[in-house]
Amino acid sequence: MKSVTIYCSSSASLDSHFTRTAEVVGRELAARGLTLVYGGGSTGLMGDVARACASAGGEVVGVITHYLAGLEVAFEGCTELITVETMRDRKRIMVERGDAFLVLPGGLGTYEEFFETLVGRVLAEHDKPVGIVNDHGYFDPLLAMIDHGIEQKFIRPAIRQLLSIDRDAIAVLHALAEDRGHGLTQADLIPPLGQLES
Question: What pLDDT was estimated at residue 23?
């Protein structure tokens, strides 16, 4: 693992404990020699994690659309700042450039990125580990929704094994580094066509 793609909020109106966690992640990535790949903004948790990583001597790759560059004020401290036309391009590059994915608290954009990346793993479009920092229980409702889908047989139980989840960001980063794919097969993740569960 040489790089980690971070999905997180760009909101500037968050409780300070979320900021502290993002800063811990940024410094830890730098300390481990891991390149940060993220959405390129300078506000909210995106800015916090990027500034912390850059200040600690880490490599920062930002990927942002021309439109969002104006709204989020692109972080000028990036080692490499990639500006693209569409969100699809942005997400594709973030997936390609990261060797693992770490989800910090965020809103609709973060949820979209998380689920698209998770579905990509389920469909074998990539085999990279996915982690969630459940900072102060922020993702409890999301995880409950996934568990509800499993209970109702809309989601395969093995999906849970694809996710490294902890309230401690360092613990999640360690789990991502140690990930070996959980030994799961496509049959574990997707019912074969014609044999779907009822």
Answer: 98
